[in-house]
Write a structure and sequence with these properties.
Rossmann fold; 4-stranded antiparallel sheet; 262 residues; binds ribulose-5-phosphate; 8 helices; Alpha-Beta Plaits
Length: 262
């Protein structure tokens, strides 16, 4: 399948490949979930195989765990690793403060726990993920199955007093049945249009009984690596206030590009 990649997939790949350079021998690394994170896992697998890179990976979903094992990464649980040097993950949206919406892949709970337990979080993204205000992408909220419709009603009622454009929410489905997360919960997607105060929104949502976690990642991400379809990457570091540019030679290796699961 080499040569068949869309510009977006190329952008995701170069962002992931550049991020893989941040992984060093001996590190404990959180491995994100989603199509961009899947590129990262494959890049790291290649480095383990070809360069003898030795690190332990903590996956943020069963999907990522399976892929990581398949490509030869040593997988450990978060409790085994205890604390992580670095987490690299994708995002659905990010703003200029590097606040994020995550959870499009349904893994926001483990992703947030893992990212929060890391010295550094790097987000890898294609350029379409950058937004002026968060909220065009529906905000995922993980809720426990018990009384989920009551929780949904409570959320919608609370949204009346919040600075948002839309207030309706939908249960995420997997075909005919509600989607079930790795932790056995459901996801409500909130169609907000624009979130005026993401920090307040994150706090308010997490105070509701029935809500387990929301997909707003506030002050968690340290760097975004933005990929472009022509191999350019941009590294934005929020702590240093720096922006670096780089360009990767785009070489599609057969091992990396076959059978991409995500
Ligand atoms: C999964 C996530 C993903 O990081 C997010 O959905 C981005 O996915 P992709 O890299 O496929 O665009 O939060 O829960």
């Amino acid at each position: 399948m080499t040569g068949d990649l869309s510009p977006i997939d190329k952008a995701k790949f170069v962002a992931a490949k550049r991020a893989a350079d941040f992984v060093e021998d001996g590190m404990r690394v959180g491995l994100g979930t989603g199509s961009t994170a899947a590129w990262l896992v494959r890049c790291l697998g290649e480095m383990v195989r070809d360069e003898g890179l030795k690190f332990r990976g903590v996956p943020t979903s069963t999907r990522t765990a399976e892929l990581a094992r398949d490509v030869g990464i040593q997988v450990v649980s978060l409790d085994e690793a205890k604390w992580l040097d670095l987490t690299i993950d994708g995002a659905d949206e990010f703003d200029s403060d590097l606040n994020l919406i995550k959870g499009g892949g349904g893994a926001l709970l483990q992703e947030k726990i893992v990212a929060t337990a890391s010295d550094q979080m790097i987000v890898i993204a294609d350029v379409g993920k950058e937004v002026e205000s968060l909220g065009t992408f529906p905000l995922p909220v993980e809720v426990i199955p018990f009384g989920w419709q009551t929780t949904q009603a409570l959320i919608e009622e609370t949204l009346i007093s919040m600075d948002v454009l839309g207030r309706n929410s939908t249960m995420r489905m997997n075909g005919e049945v509600p989607f079930i997360t790795d932790e056995g919960n459901h996801i409500l997607d909130l169609h907000l249009g624009r979130i005026g105060n993401p920090r307040q929104m994150a706090m308010v949502l997490n105070q509701m009984p029935g809500v387990v976690e929301n997909g707003l990642f506030i002050d968690i991400c340290d760097m975004v690596i933005l990929g472009y379809g022509d191999g350019r990457v941009e590294l934005r570091d929020i702590n240093e206030g720096t922006v670096e540019h780089d360009k990767l030679d785009f070489v599609e290796s057969d091992n990396l590009f076959t059978d991409l699961a995500d």
